[in-house]
């Protein structure tokens, strides 16, 4: 393997340049270009079948791109074998060796590479995942979360430049999942290597990653810091895949200073120019549910508003969620924090005004799929 040392020592940002992967006449990954800065935590987020695993497999060398290049720093890895790459993968199925102890599972890679200090390296990796006390156990004697940490240790022990995680938390219950998210983030910060974490859980991607790329149909729809992407989605798909959005199809009819004026299903609303990726013609108007207030009377001086009828009120502890039917027939969602001494006390059938500051609105290109389902009541139900 000496001849491959150049690859293993490749260091720097991971770059995918115009990477396409076709299976027969189906394009799983479509002209994908992205840069993952060295040492960052990058999440690839998208619905089932959008090409996440295929992308990871190409980075790992388990699959070759149909076209395009994959580089780490200035080293072109395209065409090289998996073991030649400074990349390790943690799959959803942990695939630990059942007959080996935890320590031997972790030491397996370094031993195979002939490293004399394999066991010491394994123990260091087990320290990192906080499992040294279980080193003598067999995988079957561990919980799911512990097995997952062994799988991470087994990948980390090889000191890869890039660690790929393909839905490694999918099998865990919600509480353990949250714990492991914090744990993985801590490990990543501690060792400072590049993590690419694949998930279809938007909350997981947002809480863990420095940068989130939202994939759909083999392409990246939007990429950026979680807060920025949540604040300003640039497509209807992202607006509803990353959190929820109230969306309405409309048309831009005028401008007013730094705002666009749009007619959206009978209502006039404003969108800051800087928050709209469309500046004329058809537009999809959007506003996040927590930016929308619910009032019995038409409010004055708050911003834009639309009249509607309450269809559902659900108390969810930190807030109350109102589902309100607006004149277009779409159901909008609004969250009111439970701050008031006197709650609003609304019931289904009540007429209300929904109001929001126009500075919170955003505009994205029209999208037939999103228009067909104007609002997602529960994003979890879509998984
Ligand atoms: N070897 C293959 N031959 C043909 N089609 C494939 C092959 N591997 C993947 N695909 C197709 O490519 C698309 C992307 O698959 P991929 O496994 O990358 O999706 P994913 O985003 O990881 O989805 P999930 O969240 O369900 O794991 C899917 O439609 C899949 O059926
Ligand atoms: Mg997958």
TrEMBL record:
Protein name as it appears in the record: Spermidine/putrescine import ATP-binding protein PotA
An MF annotation (GO) of this entry: ABC-type polyamine transporter activity
Keyword Cell cycle included in the entry's annotation: no
SMART domains with a match to the protein in the record: AAA
Subunit structure: The complex is composed of two ATP-binding proteins (PotA), two transmembrane proteins (PotB and PotC) and a solute-binding protein (PotD).
One GO term describing the cellular component: ATP-binding cassette (ABC) transporter complex
Organism: Phycicoccus elongatus Lp2
Residue ranges the record marks as coiled coil: none
Gene coding for it: potG
Domain of life: Bacteria
Main function: Part of the ABC transporter complex PotABCD involved in spermidine/putrescine import. Responsible for energy coupling to the transport system.
Domain ABC transporter: 14-242
Family assignment from sequence similarity: Belongs to the ABC transporter superfamily. Spermidine/putrescine importer (TC 3.A.1.11.1) family.
Top EC group: translocase
Annotated PROSITE patterns: ABC_TRANSPORTER_1, ABC_TRANSPORTER_2
Keywords: ATP-binding, Cell membrane, Membrane, Nucleotide-binding, Translocase, Transport
EC number(s) recorded for this UniProt protein: 7.6.2.11
Record Pfam families: ABC_tran (PF00005), TOBE_2 (PF08402)
């Amino acid at each position: 393997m000496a001849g491959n040392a150049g690859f293993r020592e490749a260091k720097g940002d991971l770059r995918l340049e115009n990477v396409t992967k076709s299976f027969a006449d189906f394009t799983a990954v479509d002209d994908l270009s992205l840069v993952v800065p060295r040492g960052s935590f990058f999440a690839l987020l998208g619905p089932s079948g959008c090409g996440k695993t295929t992308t990871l497999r190409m980075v790992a060398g388990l699959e070759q791109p149909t076209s395009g290049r994959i580089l780490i720093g200035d080293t072109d890895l395209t065409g090289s074998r998996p073991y030649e790459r400074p990349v390790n993968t943690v799959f959803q199925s942990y695939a630990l060796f059942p007959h080996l102890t935890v320590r031997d599972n972790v030491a397996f890679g370094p031993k195979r590479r002939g490293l004399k200090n394999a066991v010491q390296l394994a123990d260091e990796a087990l320290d990192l995942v906080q499992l040294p006390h279980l080193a003598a156990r067999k995988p079957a004697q561990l919980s799911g979360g512990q097995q997952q940490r062994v799988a991470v240790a087994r990948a980390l022990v090889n000191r890869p430049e890039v660690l790929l995680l393909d839905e490694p938390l999918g099998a865990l219950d919600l509480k353990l999942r949250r714990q492991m998210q914090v744990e993985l983030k801590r490990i990543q910060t501690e060792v400072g290597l590049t993590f690419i974490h694949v998930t279809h859980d938007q909350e997981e991607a947002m809480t863990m990653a420095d940068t989130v790329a939202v994939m759909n149909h083999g392409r990246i729809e939007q990429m950026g810091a979680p807060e920025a992407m949540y604040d300003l989605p640039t497509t209807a798909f992202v607006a509803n895949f990353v959190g929820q959005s109230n969306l309405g199809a409309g048309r831009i009819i005028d401008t007013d200073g730094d705002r666009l004026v749009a007619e959206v299903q009978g209502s006039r609303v404003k969108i800051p120019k800087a928050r709209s990726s469309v500046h004329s013609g058809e537009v999809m108007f959007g506003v996040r549910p927590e930016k929308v207030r619910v009032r019995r009377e038409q409010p004055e001086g708050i911003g834009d508003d639309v009249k509607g009828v309450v269809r559902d009120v659900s108390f969810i502890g930190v807030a109350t969620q109102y589902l309100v039917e607006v004149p277009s027939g779409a159901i909008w969602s609004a969250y009111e924090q439970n701050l008031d001494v006197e709650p609003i006390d609304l019931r289904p059938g009540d007429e209300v005004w929904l109001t929001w500051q126009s500075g919170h609105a955003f505009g994205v290109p029209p999208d037939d799929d999103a228009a067909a389902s104007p609002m997602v009541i529960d994003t979890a139900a879509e998984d």
